[in-house]
Amino acid sequence: MPLSVGSKRVLLHSSGKGWTIEPAVIQVDGTAIKSVKTYPNAEQITATSNWFGDDLITPGFVDSHTHLALNFIRGRVTPAESGKNLVENLFFKLEEKLTAADVGAFSRMGAYECLLSGTTTVWDHYYHGDAIADSMMQVGLTGKVAATLQDVSGPGKNEWETNLAFTQALHGSEYHKNLGITAALGPHATDTVSEELWRKILDVAEKSTLPVHSHVAQSIEEFNRIGEIYGCSPVDFLRRSGLFEVPVPKLLVHMIYAGTKDLSYCKSPDVKLIACPNSQLIFHFPAAYLEWWRHGLNWAVGTDCAASNDTLRVQAEMRTLATWPMASISHSPEYGEFRRSASKVQAQGMAALRNALTDEQNLLLTEEKLLNILFLGSCDGADSAGNPTGIKTGGIANLTVWNWEDPVFWPGYSPKRSIIFGDLQPALKGLMTLGKWRGTTGDVRRSILGSSEYKAARREATERLNALLNRAGL
Predict the structure, then answer these.
(1) 253's torsion region: left (phi>0), alpha (psi -120 to 50) or beta?
(2) Domain that includes residue 352, residue range
(3) For the domain that residue 85 is a member of, what is the CATH number?
(4) To bridge 141 with a disulfide, which of 136, 190, 281, 299 should be the other Cys (CB 3.0-4.6 Å)?
(5) Do residues 38 and 77 share a domain?
(6) Helix (H) or strand (E) holding 59
(7) What's the pLDDT band for 382 if we cut at 50, 70, 90?
(8) Residue 304 has what DSSP assignment?
(9) Is residue 382 within 8 Å of 372, Cβ to Cβ?
């Protein structure tokens, strides 16, 4: 049944005006936005079935890289393990024992966590893609599913043909598309996928116009293996394999061991680098984001997974990155000189560096770009991967309503800045995905957590986790 949603403050985006907050009414028909009408002032709005007055309505957040099911390892990473290759030494060993039903149960919990943080669209990359897609649909989360493809090593090395067939089937499924679930190709990493399989994946990508979503240059082991086998870096290996020539969206996640030459290969608008700062601070160390921005590369933000991040709040990742250039001062040669001499001259040098980086930050990390990433999943604001995100005619009806009375918005001078820097989660008042309100508006979190569906999902996930740990001898 068609419905209308409106308020005095609706966050909208257009190519001409960028991001604006205006009085508007959004007409929703089924799972899609039928129309968006703005008004010079709210008093001109005469009727709407869901009127939110002063509250702020925005699109849902976009998480450009996550593993919903990996929440089952949350809190199990010890300090000793964090100093090693977590993927190979911990994740792979447990993932070998996962069933599709396990992944489905754990993914439902991850999907609930995303929704309760205001994220409505994700790029999920993991094993048992069919179970992930089903879980997302059950909870109401939308996005891309990239079933993991690997044939050299890893838990899915004998399942790549099945996973590739699933990806192609999902790509052609109108049923899933109507429920906001579409496909991406998910080659795991450069060292777990053979050159032969990489070429097969790229051939499918080009013929089917499927985006490619892959971990790249994420560990020293990956960097060394590719160097020993092919005599080049992981990014250069992808260049030689033909990745950058295929005219489809390419999302390269992590890019920690990527040099200046590697970054020069990534200047195409089809290439997007995915930053996962809080996860990288735990499982390895952060990539050189400032160099990404200085190269003018397209980028976005992901949470990675709760196993190495403890949260699936993509807006918290943006808060970490929004002033990232300032963090580089603490590790600069200028600061090193100051620590050694602590002289007035060295202090002035640091202050000059700070001023220069402030100017650079204001240029590279504009409010417009940061909002593009949060709500459109792309720094440049282009809908390059076919995600119908944002509040626009024809887009998926994914909306979040934020309580304007919450102190995070007070005194209200710059709500767009509050979206980027504030701790928004407690202010979540209403949540719509696929044209359907999730939970009770005004009581979203408590109503969802108190629902029989959530309680059953949590109970099943707990039972399956206990059984998995028993199988793994943990």
Answers:
(1) beta
(2) 330-359
(3) 3.20.20.140
(4) 136
(5) no
(6) strand 56-59
(7) confident
(8) B
(9) no
